[in-house]
Amino acid sequence: LKTLEEPSKSVVLFLVTSQELLPTIISRCQKVRFSFVPAIQIEQGIEQSATAKEVAFLSAGRPGRALGLQKANTHQEYAQQAQEVLKVLQADESGKFSWITEQFGQRGTLAERRESLHEYLNVFEAILRDGLLLRAQSSAEALQHLFMKNELARYVQQVSFSEMTSLLKSITLARQMIYSNVDPRLIAEGVLLKSD
After folding, report:
1. Over 120-189, what HEC string results?
2. DSSP-derived 3-state class of residue 20
3. Residues 6 or more apart whose Cβ sits within 8 Å of residue 29
4. What is the dihedral of CA 149, 154, 160, 162, to 10 degrees?
5. C-alpha span between 193 and 81 (Å, rounded)
6. What DSSP state is assigned to residue 31?
7. Is 121 helix (H, G, I), strand (E, B) or coil?
8. Which of 51, 115, 121, 164 has the fewest CB atoms in 10 Å of its CB?
């Protein structure tokens, strides 16, 4: 608290958190909310390439993510991950369970599995968003995953609007659980496997 109360003249402290802070800390700070950057501004700000527009949409308003995606391998890896996620969404319960076990079983540390789940949830959410846009017959220009528009269109024909929105709600809940003491595998099962 002393550091917050009496910083030296040349010090600026940033506290970044996704969790609640103690009232004693909050009372000594000023809140600054950072909003997402529009895709058009990200596109203008990154190095121009054949994939600049796509990278800007895939970044979901995060300039740092856009810069990371702009690297050739990262963009290709994301495209592969997006294709993988779409296949998981289309898989039967057995296929989903196998994928969850492979991804979040005992591979890596708990922290690595949590981070991996967090990344996958971002991809699931972005694909479902595109699915909802396609269902609403929005312009293809609004899609983040324009490179897989045809596959997305086939997926949208197989699922209802309520199934997609239900999955999105599950993802929101899952995000809240990731950094609590819940195993990533159980979280993924809760999102992807139906409980009748």
Report:
1. HHHHHHHHHHHHHHHHCCCCHHHCCCHHHHHHHHHHHHHCCHHHHHHHHHHHHHHHHHHCCCCCHHHHHH
2. coil
3. 4, 15, 21
4. -30
5. 20
6. -
7. helix
8. 115
pTM of the model: 0.71
Q: Map 32-66 to HEC letters.
A: CCCCCCCHHHHHHHCCCCCCHHHHHHHCCCCHHHH
* Tokens matching residue 114: 């949590």
> In angstroms, rounded to a whole number, what is the distance separating the alpha carbons of residues 60 and 125?
11
pLDDT tens digits for the chain (196 residues)? 778 888 888 888 888 777 788 888 888 888 777 788 887 888 888 877 767 777 777 777 778 878 877 776 677 788 889 999 999 999 999 999 999 999 998 788 888 898 899 989 989 998 999 899 888 887 767 777 778 889 999 999 999 999 999 999 999 999 888 878 789 999 999 999 975 4
Asked if 157 contacts 135 with a C-beta cutoff of 8 angstroms, the reply is no
CA distance 54 to 67: 12
Place of tokens 């972005």: 126
Cβ burial of 117 (10 Å; 0-12, 13-18, 19+) is: buried
**Tokens (6 digits) for 81:** 């991950």
Classify burial at 67, counting beta carbons within 10 Å of its beta carbon; exposed 0-12, middle 13-18, buried 19 or more: middle
